[in-house]
């Protein structure tokens, strides 16, 4: 009889352990996903598929649905999807570009991929996910350094570190900028291993600015550092003095760059120079291209985005309220840009202009509504009585700023490379969060 009783107890304990392991599986997978962002996009999507499988295995769907219903992001996300559906139904599918319609439509549903992530219960996994993200940034910095010494093979796994691959290379820089800023924020509350933390920040930031080959990420890192400084100073006269000092420094740098003679070339891939020289060259070229464009002069490949923005603005002016319909930007732009070097572009490299072109004012307002919800949620989190929730407010604010700034110069939500990466990172502060 005693043996039977012991066996029954063992069976119950085994069953409870197995059930606990299944319930924790989504959190365990989600805590590792930030590392996949620093490698080819296929690795990231494989990790996402594993998460979906773990979500199905874990069960507890009533609790998951309840968390989703209580999320402050649910209504803003549904609002954007609803606007895209209404525009698609009213505008119809373009006859001359039907093949691009469905990919274009699904790009507007990127935020829907966030919903399964935020059904996961909050917990210690969130801090583990942040440290995995920091480790990924250090790995990325090391790979950039290895490439600088010509030690990295140009195979599929490391190609984005060896060769500039557009959006993926830009994403790597943005991820490193966000990770370095998050690590800086961590110093406020976590002083253990201080020397190693500071060295990691300097290491990642240096690799970002000197080796990552993306101006957007460098600008983002500076902006996030300014936000952290303002947050640390609080509201005082210094809060307003710091931006004025930075603006004065930027103006001085602008005037200095304009006074320099034009560089022989602005095509970075043709330049053989050290990291600092390349960074300085890109900065000078950007400023001089802005001047040339404003004065009606011809711009080269480095200033192509200015040309794209001008022509896209003309397209928007034709129907700014309702937009031209999903997947309409590319054919309309190619028609207006015939003979120009930018005629082969597939996006305007600006989410605000893309949403205005295809979804009109309502689409842009829906997008801004999501980002406003993220900012408002971050503010409410900062006032939360639980330290774990309050500590995640600043990472959410930084992610939102990264998306808003990145959307000015890149297709942050139009491209799945950017979109899914940001959904994974947003899951860290937003998982299991209730609107009240």
TrEMBL record:
<feature type="transmembrane region" description="Helical">
    <location>
        <begin position="194"/>
        <end position="211"/>
    </location>
</feature>
<feature type="transmembrane region" description="Helical">
    <location>
        <begin position="416"/>
        <end position="433"/>
    </location>
</feature>
<feature type="transmembrane region" description="Helical">
    <location>
        <begin position="240"/>
        <end position="257"/>
    </location>
</feature>
<feature type="transmembrane region" description="Helical">
    <location>
        <begin position="74"/>
        <end position="93"/>
    </location>
</feature>
<dbReference type="InterPro" id="IPR051533">
    <property type="entry name" value="WaaL-like"/>
</dbReference>
<feature type="transmembrane region" description="Helical">
    <location>
        <begin position="389"/>
        <end position="410"/>
    </location>
</feature>
<feature type="transmembrane region" description="Helical">
    <location>
        <begin position="37"/>
        <end position="62"/>
    </location>
</feature>
<keyword id="KW-0436">Ligase</keyword>
<feature type="transmembrane region" description="Helical">
    <location>
        <begin position="217"/>
        <end position="233"/>
    </location>
</feature>
<feature type="transmembrane region" description="Helical">
    <location>
        <begin position="169"/>
        <end position="187"/>
    </location>
</feature>
<keyword id="KW-1133">Transmembrane helix</keyword>
<protein>
    <submittedName>
        <fullName>O-antigen ligase family protein</fullName>
    </submittedName>
</protein>
<dbReference type="Pfam" id="PF04932">
    <property type="entry name" value="Wzy_C"/>
</dbReference>
<keyword id="KW-0472">Membrane</keyword>
<dbReference type="InterPro" id="IPR007016">
    <property type="entry name" value="O-antigen_ligase-rel_domated"/>
</dbReference>
<feature type="domain" description="O-antigen ligase-related">
    <location>
        <begin position="202"/>
        <end position="368"/>
    </location>
</feature>
<feature type="transmembrane region" description="Helical">
    <location>
        <begin position="105"/>
        <end position="124"/>
    </location>
</feature>
<dbReference type="GO" id="GO:0016874">
    <property type="term" value="F:ligase activity"/>
</dbReference>
<feature type="transmembrane region" description="Helical">
    <location>
        <begin position="352"/>
        <end position="377"/>
    </location>
</feature>
<feature type="transmembrane region" description="Helical">
    <location>
        <begin position="131"/>
        <end position="149"/>
    </location>
</feature>
<keyword id="KW-0812">Transmembrane</keyword>
